[in-house]
Amino acid sequence: MKYLIPVLLIILFSCQSKPGFGPETAKKEIRAILTEQQKAWNRNDIETYMQGYYKSDSLRFASGGHVSYGWETTLNRYKKGYPDKAAMGTLTFSKIDIKMLSETSALVFGKWELERAGDHPWGLFTLIFRKAPCGWRIVHDHTSSDK
Prior knowledge:
Elements: H1 4-14, H2 23-42, H3 46-49, E1 60-63, E2 66-69, H4 71-81, H5 85-88, E3 90-100, E4 105-115, E5 122-132, E6 135-143
């Protein structure tokens, strides 16, 4: 019985987050990446937009019933699908909801919209961000479209 309180205290403190981890700071950093991606897209700069993704062959992108892997594959997919400013339109992210899964991973849900001359496509996305040596990066992207 005399060991019960110390054991309970050890268990309690072992469940605490590591010192220095701030979920609000992580969320702010993730929001900043999404903001920079939106700005890059609207400048017609796919290369900078892609900096939000983890540069790895394990990056997974799912959309339109297809799954692809790899940073280069994703970059090429974007370049093929959005060859010029007219195709890219103006991107807006909204309804961003960030749930921290751990100190090194987060689930992000949101809505994307493109404003283009002839149409206004939109959809929803779910992203998994991981904290990498280079900072927070998208490692999984599942994007749907209204069409």
